[in-house]
Amino acid sequence: MTVSHEIKSQLAKLLATEDLVVEHKKVETACFNVHTRVLTLPMWERASGQVYDMLVGHEVGHALYTPDRNWLQEIKIPPQFVNVVEDVRIEKLMKRRYAGISKTFYRGYQELADEDFFQIADENVNNMNLADKANLYFKIGNFVDIEFSSQESILIDKIANTETFDDVLKVSQELYEFCKRQEEMKTKVDDLQMQGGQEGGNDISEVPQQGDEGMEEGDDSQPTEQETDPWESEEPGDSDSYGGTNNDEPEVSTMNNLEDAIKQLASMDGFENVYVELPKLEMNKFVVDNSEIHGRFAEWDEWMDRNELVKDEVFYHIDNEFVKFKRSAQKEVNYLVKEFECKKAADSYARATTSRTGVLDCGNLHTYKFNEDLFKKVTVLPDGKNHGLVFILDWSGSMSRVMLDTIKQLYNLMWFCKKVSIPFEVYAFTNEWKKPEIDYEKGELVYPADRTPSYEAKENLLSVSEDFSLMNMFTSKVNGKQLEYQMINIWRIAKAFADFYHSGYSVPSRLSLSGTPLNETLVCLHQILPQFQRENKVQKVQCIVLTDGEAPHLARHVQVQRHWEDEPYMGRRQLKMGSFLRDRKTGNTYQIPCGWHGFSDLMLHNLRDNFPTVNFVGIRVLESRDANSFIKMYYDQFTDEYQKVFGDWKKLRSFTIKNSGYHAYFGMSASTLAQNSEFEVDDDATKAKIKSAFIKSLKTKKLNKKVLGEFISLVA
Question: Is the torsion defined by CA of 626, 629, 635, 641 positive or negative?
Fold first, then answer.
């Protein structure tokens, strides 16, 4: 049968009512670490659902009720005897706590009895020692007839009535001593039988038989401590599993048999499950401050001071384009503001409550004969929530062609935030900032001083590269003049990316495009988002991630020991099948999928679980040839959902995906993104050109309004 290990893990957590760490691994037996609160379960692939649930319930019982103490130092008896009694106690307490689990234990043990997990099919259970009989009685006593003497019944009652672990230790000691006396008496009886056979008919009746009578069903006689039931051995003199003549130490064979049988249920094939966790990063180690970013543009100032004529030639037209764009963008910004205010007001009205006061409305007094509503009413509008925006920008090499158009959309959102007083931060992810620079005076590569790790590497933590950085491109904390200066700087860079060979200037060092560390950024958001909320005192945050591609899985840290080295080192290993992300804060465990997009979706779901007041919005820039394959990542080609989304793409060159890790994932055409929504034609344009330009303008405006409208709905 196929078992969902994570479903069983959630069952264990629910039963434990605490944030247990549950791991399914290639082990033969379950165990619980009372120090770390880690419950390790075998992968019982061969167990039925009832048996699996019963085993999980049993182990959770240990997790809940078995104390964290080294009891082996308190009592000098074989651990099996304590286990027999403790199993009874914890299962009793589990049944008391969860009434429905009694049926699970009943059916699970019934199946174990039917499959002879205790290996008693060829045995007379009434000839076993009391520990074995007790083990069988409390586990499968509903399906096997077991007889007890009056003295044995006293111990059975004591086992059944244990409530604390101290009770367990006390009763276990008594149980062991009782079984020890049984073994000693059995040895004596066997010796006498052997002597009787050698001496030609010595009668065994010389051995006291009161204990034998005491074992009979219904007999009221009370055996003394020295008296016990003689065992009927099939082959006197042979050592058997219950303690024969060659071993005076009693053991619980049924416990051994059960453990061996349960081991056979566990699957030891396939991949070993690996549980990884997120590292907690130090923000000052991976976030590049806004002032430091724009301090890099001093290189331009120095260069322009040496080339005064070039300054005017290079930046004059580029800066004028920015001014022109800013002027034209006000229409879309105003549209955003209007939609935001309207939706916010509509939402407030929908949530408004009307209450009656104890003040009479004098204007309605004349209607007292036919109207009971004579009191003034007060309409209460709930307070609106404060909003904030965190924007994540893809600073990878593949974005070079569309970077300028992306920056335009970003600027629209920033101006919108400024107009409605929404605080914002804009980060760009990169692998370039911490790369070494050439020191021409020394003639060597110099690494930046901030290349220190942002976290302590430990076994099975997800790995974040030392090269990774988040550049704080923009922030609402600066004044309007500074912000415009910074926007012009990034505008110039975007223009250089778009036309590198004809721009006439180079990008400042460390600000070049690089890889796509998207997943590293999603790890960092666990620190960025709460800090942003605290600093700006906002209740709702919109986190917008703009990218044009997927990012690979993160690796995990592992300790590596090479045979030629004395000390191990912390290395990295790629994730494989059977890997799970574990979040101790929320108590959730997520199975890591194979696909790149699936891993990012998993990281986003984890973020959503941690930050329920944050809306995560994705914007994916697509080439026309990539749209179909991208949609197929989320929808089966033959479903209605696929047809609808793909239909939107063909008509509007945009679509919205609702079943990804984002709350909404917008797909936008790179070519459409670059189109200007302004209706502009030459003075000498023909009617056909005017018509074409007008239709193109309307189509672009329709696209923008659709995407922006959905975005505003999320924000408001």
Answer: positive
Is residue 22, in this structure, part of any structural domain at all?
no
> What residues form DSSP beta bridges with 378?
355
Residue 415 inside a domain? The answer is yes
Kindly state whether residues 249 and 287 are assigned to the same domain: no
Query: What SS3 state is found at 608?
Result: helix
What is residue 337's DSSP assignment?
H
- Regarding whether 685 and 550 lie in a shared domain, the answer is yes
Structural domain of 447: 283-369+382-555+564-715
Distance CA 314, CA 282 (A): 40
Calculate helix-pair angle for 49-65, 5-16, nearest 10 degrees.
Answer: 40
Number of structural domains, the chain?
Answer: 2
Distance CA 35, CA 521 (A): 33
Token code pair at residue 511: 């600000």
Report how far Cα 90 is from the mean position of its chain's Cα atoms. 30
pLDDT band at 310 (very low <50, low <70, confident <90, very high): low
262 in any annotated domain: no
Q: Which percentage of the chain shows pLDDT scores above 90?
A: 31
Task: Tell me the pLDDT tens digit for each residue of 551-591.
Answer: 989 999 998 888 888 888 888 999 888 888 988 888 788 88
pLDDT at 74: 83
Q: Would you state the pLDDT for residue 210?
A: 38
Question: Do residues 315 and 432 share a domain?
Answer: yes
Has residue 62 been placed in a domain?
A: no
Q: Are residues 195 and 308 in the same domain?
A: no
Please indicate, yes or no, whether residues 221 and 363 belong to a single structural domain of this protein: no
- Does residue 477 sit in the same domain as residue 530? yes
Residue-level pLDDT at 365:
58
Whether 251 and 294 share a structural domain: no
Residues 543 and 656 both lie in one domain: yes
pTM for the predicted model, two decimal places: 0.70
* Cβ contact 382:405 at 8 Å: no
**pLDDT the model gives residue 630:** 92
pLDDT above 80 (res 212): no
Q: How far apart are CA 260 and CA 28, in angstroms?
A: 9
Q: Which two tokens stand for residue 516?
A: 């796509």
| 256/412 Cα distance (integer angstroms) | 71
Task: For residue 411, give the nearest of 341, 472, 490 by alpha carbon.
Answer: 490
CB contact at 8 A, 431 and 468: yes
Beta-sheet strands, E only, within 561-702: 569-573, 579-583, 588-591, 614-622, 654-657, 664-669
Last residue of a domain, one of 255, 272, 305: 255
Q: What one-letter code names the amino acid at 210?
A: Q
